[in-house]
What we know:
With 240 residues, chain A is an all-alpha fold. Chain A is built from ten helices and no strands. Chain A has one domain (2-239): MetI-like (MetI-like fold, Orthogonal Bundle). Chain B folds into two domains: 1-40; 46-243, MetI-like fold. Residues 18-24 and 240-245 of chain B have low confidence and may be disordered.
Amino acid sequence: MFRTLWVWIGIPLIMIGIVAAMIIYSVNNPTDSIVERMLTYERVFRVIRQHASLLLISMTGATIVGVLGGIMLSRPSLYRAGRVVETIVNIGQTVPSIAILALFYTILGMGFRVAVFALFLYSILPILRNTFAGIDGVDYSIIEAARGMGMHPLRILTKIELPIAFPIIVAGFRTAIVINVGAATLATFIGGGGLGDLIVTGLAVRREMIILNGAALAALSAILLDYLIGKAEERVVKWS
Amino acid sequence: MDQLLRMIVDLLMTLGNGTLLSTQNEARGDLRETIDWIIRRSDRILDLMVEHLWLVLFTLVIAIVVSVIVGIFISYYETLAQPVLGVCQVLMVIPSIAMLAFMVTIFGIGFTSGVVALVLYSLLPIVRNTYTGIRELDPAILESAKGMGMTERRILFKIKLPLARPVIMAGVRTAAVMMIGIAALAAYVGAGGLGELIFQGIGRGHRPMIIAGAIGVSIIAVAFDYILYYGEKRFSVEGRTREGN
């Protein structure tokens, strides 16, 4: 019990505490007037809020579309298309996130929505691929047996294929979220805001204090999310 | 050369006019403008591309040397393996722009920051693959090598590393592809490369520039992935003989 509390609440709180202390210190002790103006609580909260909504909206959409798409592609009638899509997804994942964001900027212009859309499309890829691979990897004799027992295809999907593929889908989700947090810090280049905003501002005015705070926040968000999902993943693997 | 390219483009454009692009006048104008710009500035784009490749290859060499040594080290000192891999994992999770920003506060703006950030990023895939590649060798092989009286050093260089090579190569491939994307960001901290086109283009609202930069980076990444994929296949001679083909 104590161990669970420590893993789920203790360690994350310590991480948050260190960064929060750093931010409070730097907001209260600015090195000069520029830092004082650029680094305020409102601004920090605003970029955190922007970052969170970037992540939340794009990840929710990507999870829904990715899982549904993966399920659809793994149906026997679409299986050939699934192989083709897998290749395309593999190439798509090789393309760097900054290139994706920049290309969407040239097509759709600046702004929060464009950033969300680009992140959404980019994070579909790992989820879609892993869902497809997970369901594809289910031993065919199990499905055959289920069919022999007279199970409906929908029941086969929900009772056999998805539970067996679940750990792989979660692994895809974890990859997607790590990529997404990294890419969300780049959203600021196309006017999407987020934690990258502080880093870019800091680099522009050459104030290390702002850079450090922004980088610490971005690193914290990524490490924390990866840590929590990693722990959840361990659970899932143990449980299934 | 320029004229030849222009002719090819004109030909393509006239073909395109009739079919694909005739409905989208604006898009056609954009495409035309982009191709024109790319031809006009092809020398600069090539320069930046070479700079990009130089940054990636230079870093890759350092990264391979450092990571393989670390990987070998932790394969001998098992207790250190999990902590070292954990640290590498955390380094890789940190968003790339945050890592570059940290490096700027330490090394200042320029090439060094980019190189150090890239090396730190590529640690995990190569260290992990070196470690698992060595760990997962058949103990019988190592035992027989020892039985033949080979020294530990010879076992490492004649048996462990050659047999782990395909796995290490897979890690190098992952690292290289990742590096190309991050090297594009390194332009933001003054390390040069194709990222410069992207950032300058966004700054000026110059679309052809952004498209040239983004597509250039993507092409390099995909090309590297393919080249290293075939390299991997060629290098894994051991795997082929074992399966008998």
